[in-house]
Amino acid sequence: VIELAKLQDQVAPFPFAEVQQTIEQELGKPLDQLFKSFSPDPVASASLSQVHRATTLAGDDVAVKVQRPQVKQIMEKDLSILRDLAVLLDRYIPEVRQFSPVAIVDEVAKSAKQEVDFLYEARNLEIFAQNFADDDRIFLPRIFWDHTSLRVLTLSFIDGIKISDVARLREAGVDLAVVT
After folding, report:
1. DSSP character for 48?
2. What sign does the dihedral 35-154-144-151 (CA atoms) show?
3. Contact indicator for 43, 84 with CB cutoff of 8 Å
4. Torsion angle, alpha carbons of 143, 124, 116, 144, to 10
5. Measured distance CA(92)–CA(95) in Å, rounded
6. Which of 14, 42, 92, 161 has the fewest CB atoms in 10 Å of its CB?
7. CA distances in angstroms from 79 to 43, 50, 121, listed in the order given
8. pTM listed for this prediction
9. Could you give the CA distance from residue 60 to residue 117 in angstroms, rounded to a whole number?
């Protein structure tokens, strides 16, 4: 679990030149025509993407999530290999058939495809925000749709503490029973 948790935000970042190229390809403009400032250093780097802090031309402080280059192709290749293995398991090891390995891999593949679609993520965040609009305990970032695409997601920047950082949550006086 500890090793898998590192995939959330402790993966080596990819080069800023690739970040810039992805943003410019996805949003159709040079970076300096999209943002007043853009930090080349990521605030987080994970297995699928990394996040950079930026300021929009209108002055909004934002977090820009940028998908890693080739991540979709790598994921599709890995899932294809997993599916082949599941077919072999199903064919040659009768004891696993009750677990439907092919169906499991197909379900994982469906979820994985949604993970690399930032428009899907943005729409879900928007629905979640609408569903909890009357709950003042929940604060969600604003989506900057004009700076969002399939591979780039721009949200208002929210400075916070990871829910797994119990020590910092306690230091901040957060009631752990409420947030867990």
Report:
1. S
2. positive
3. no
4. -10
5. 9
6. 92
7. 29, 22, 21
8. 0.84
9. 24
